[in-house]
Amino acid sequence: MRKQIVAGNWKMNTTLPEGLALAKGIDEALRGKTVHCDVILGTPFTHLASVAAAIDTTRIGVAAENCADKEKGAFTGEVSAAMIASTGARYVIIGHSERRAYYHETPEILKEKVRLALAHGLTPIFCVGEVLAEREAGKHFDVVDAQIRESLFDLTADDFGRLILAYEPVWAIGTGKTATAAQAQEIHAHIRQTIAAKYGATVADATSILYGGSCNAGNARELFANPDVDGGLIGGASLEVEKFLPIIEAF
Ligand code: 3PY
């Protein structure tokens, strides 16, 4: 069976002491509890090593929110996949809509980031999703298909099998709007079919597809109850222990 996953995406929030307190709070709250999903904390680069050292990483994974599209060298300010892996982080979020929109990350750049992340043993959490105008024009299926095809379909089946996907409708990010459970199920099932058509049903059935975009304690249970929604990539609600825990417990 594929993994069920709840992953936080802290974005550019928390100072190091605040982030450490949050990570330790989640770690303590989960200690001794039976948890029915994998838990991942996506933190700013500056926090990765300290968070990984402060929590039990056999129970909680740590993710970076981005990585460079270059192996190493004269790229001032960039952080490579190898550097991320050396902190103890095991995951990296790639292709979040904020990176695509604000930092002009193209499908080619994202493809290279995925390649480098895999080469350094990291699990990419690859994000796809349409903007409101695309959904209103009925183009959402084509948009996510193109995002997957252009950045991921050069991978071997083995490498594709190492990915986590996240569907995040851009119109639901930071807006308080959420896709309905039915809308999420419909497009997750479509994404799984797209994967199956390329890599076969075994790979598609084993791929975890998370829902992201204003997922919170109030809607997580209904979203996660869908057969093709394998968990969530959580923005704002991952920044407080009391808001994040009920999402983990929604499984
Ligand atoms: C959100 O929930 O707003 C996100 O962008 C999660 O990645």
Account of the protein in words:
Keywords: Cytoplasm, Gluconeogenesis, Glycolysis, Isomerase. The protein has 251 residues and is an alpha/beta fold. It has one domain: Aldolase class I (TIM Barrel). 43% of the residues lie in helices and 15% in strands. It is built from twelve helices and eight strands. The protein has an eight-stranded parallel β-barrel, surrounded by five helices. α5 crosses α7 and α7 packs across α9. It is globular and about 45 Å long. It starts with a strand and ends with a helix. 45% of the residues are buried. Bound molecules: 3-hydroxypyruvic acid.
Write the CATH fold name: TIM Barrel
- Please give the number of β-strands: 8
Rg over CA atoms: 17 Å
Summed over residues and divided by their number, the pLDDT gives a mean of: 97
Oligomer: single chain
Top keywords for this entry?
eight-stranded parallel β-barrel, 251 residues, 12 helices, 43% helix, 8 strands, TIM Barrel, binds 3-hydroxypyruvic acid
Produce a short descriptive summary:
The chain has 251 residues and is of the alpha/beta class.
What's the topology here?
Elements: E1 5-9, H1 16-30, E2 38-42, H2 48-54, E3 60-64, H3 81-86, E4 91-94, H4 97-102, H5 107-119, E5 123-128, H6 132-136, H7 140-152, H8 157-160, E6 164-167, H9 181-199, H10 201-206, E7 209-212, H11 220-224, E8 231-234, H12 241-248
Helix pairs in contact: 5-7, 7-9
